[in-house]
């Protein structure tokens, strides 16, 4: 019997809320308006805070969690790794083949004549914007962290961490909101699919 844990239900609540609010946002504002609004809420503290948040989706934390699973939760290794490989495969196909060369905000809005706030010393990419790989990785990784937690509110908390990575990609001027919505969908839904496929082997965590 395939049972979705309470913590994953909480995580999915956070995911669906993020997607619905995000769709409303991108449907009602132009890309220029979206970026101006997000970019207007800035500070030196936020620059470093969201830079730090975006790093959680890179190598150190996912690999650290992988090592933890290998040592303590080996039954989660296959779904964790497979969901990463499959979601990342789709991200790379979209980013480098189907939407290859899609302009990132700094290039797309180059003629907007807006003095954008950018974090000092941060390299800003210009192409291959769609979808967001960091956001995909965040919603994948925090899904499996949520899976090990017992309470719905803890799953919601993991969802908020994943959302913060998505927001950081827009705040740091690396992506448009739509890039993060698609990246989140790939990371979360493919992880959910792997969770369901491996449900019988993961019953001890239910």
Automatic annotation (TrEMBL):
<dbReference type="GO" id="GO:0016787">
    <property type="term" value="F:hydrolase activity"/>
</dbReference>
<dbReference type="GO" id="GO:0005886">
    <property type="term" value="C:plasma membrane"/>
</dbReference>
<protein>
    <submittedName>
        <fullName>Phosphatase PAP2 family protein</fullName>
    </submittedName>
</protein>
<keyword id="KW-0472">Membrane</keyword>
<feature type="transmembrane region" description="Helical">
    <location>
        <begin position="48"/>
        <end position="69"/>
    </location>
</feature>
<feature type="transmembrane region" description="Helical">
    <location>
        <begin position="81"/>
        <end position="99"/>
    </location>
</feature>
<keyword id="KW-1133">Transmembrane helix</keyword>
<keyword id="KW-0378">Hydrolase</keyword>
<feature type="domain" description="Phosphatidic acid phosphatase type 2/haloperoxidase">
    <location>
        <begin position="77"/>
        <end position="195"/>
    </location>
</feature>
<dbReference type="InterPro" id="IPR036938">
    <property type="entry name" value="PAP2/HPO_sf"/>
</dbReference>
<feature type="transmembrane region" description="Helical">
    <location>
        <begin position="153"/>
        <end position="173"/>
    </location>
</feature>
<dbReference type="Pfam" id="PF01569">
    <property type="entry name" value="PAP2"/>
</dbReference>
<keyword id="KW-1003">Cell membrane</keyword>
<keyword id="KW-0812">Transmembrane</keyword>
<feature type="transmembrane region" description="Helical">
    <location>
        <begin position="7"/>
        <end position="28"/>
    </location>
</feature>
<feature type="transmembrane region" description="Helical">
    <location>
        <begin position="180"/>
        <end position="199"/>
    </location>
</feature>
<dbReference type="InterPro" id="IPR000326">
    <property type="entry name" value="PAP2/HPO"/>
</dbReference>
């Amino acid at each position: 019997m395939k049972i979705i844990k309470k913590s994953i239900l909480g995580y999915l609540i956070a995911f669906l809320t993020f997607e619905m609010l995000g769709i409303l946002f991108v449907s009602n504002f132009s890309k220029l308006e979206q970026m101006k609004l997000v970019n207007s809420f800035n500070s030196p503290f936020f620059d470093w805070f969201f830079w730090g948040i975006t790093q959680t989706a890179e190598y150190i934390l996912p690999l650290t969690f992988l090592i933890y699973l290998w040592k303590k939760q080996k039954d989660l290794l296959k779904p964790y790794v497979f969901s990463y490989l499959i979601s990342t495969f789709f991200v790379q196909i979209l980013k480098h083949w189907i939407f290859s060369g899609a302009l990132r905000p700094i290039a797309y809005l180059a003629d907007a004549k807006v003095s954008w706030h950018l974090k000092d010393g941060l390299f800003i990419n210009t192409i291959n914007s769609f979808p967001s790989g960091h956001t995909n990785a965040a919603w994948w990784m925090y899904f499996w962290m949520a899976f090990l937690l017992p309470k719905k509110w803890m799953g919601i908390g993991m969802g908020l961490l994943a959302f913060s990575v998505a927001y950081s990609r827009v705040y740091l001027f690396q992506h448009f909101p739509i890039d993060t919505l698609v990246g989140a969908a790939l990371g979360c839904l493919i992880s959910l699919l792997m969770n369901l496929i491996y449900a019988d082997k993961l019953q001890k965590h239910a």
